[in-house]
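User: Can you recover a sequence for this backbone? Please restate the input before giving your answer.

Assistant: Of course. Working from this structure:
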């Protein structure tokens, strides 16, 4: 069941490594992917890896955090992404 979240985060990591810097666009694409897989997003945030403060544009290493409901199960995952 965690595969949709893991897959979405892997796609996000690839997008950042190929030049995506807009957090809003990245979050929207991941939310869409999870929704299409039957999940309901609880939260999706991109934060600075060191300060854990929310960022709008990716300029240095970040952590992408997601929680989503799949039926009665709440899944939480994150991924560190370096630029």
């Amino acid at each position: 069941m965690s595969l949709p979240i893991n897959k979405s985060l892997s796609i996000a990591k690839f997008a950042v490594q190929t030049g995506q810097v807009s957090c809003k666009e990245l979050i929207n694409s991941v939310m869409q992917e999870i929704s299409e897989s039957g999940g309901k997003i609880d939260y999706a945030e991109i934060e600075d890896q060191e300060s854990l403060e929310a960022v709008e544009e990716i300029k240095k290493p970040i952590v992408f955090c997601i929680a989503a409901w799949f039926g009665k199960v709440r899944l939480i995952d994150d991924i560190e992404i370096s630029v």
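That completes the design. The chain is about 35% helix and 35% strand.
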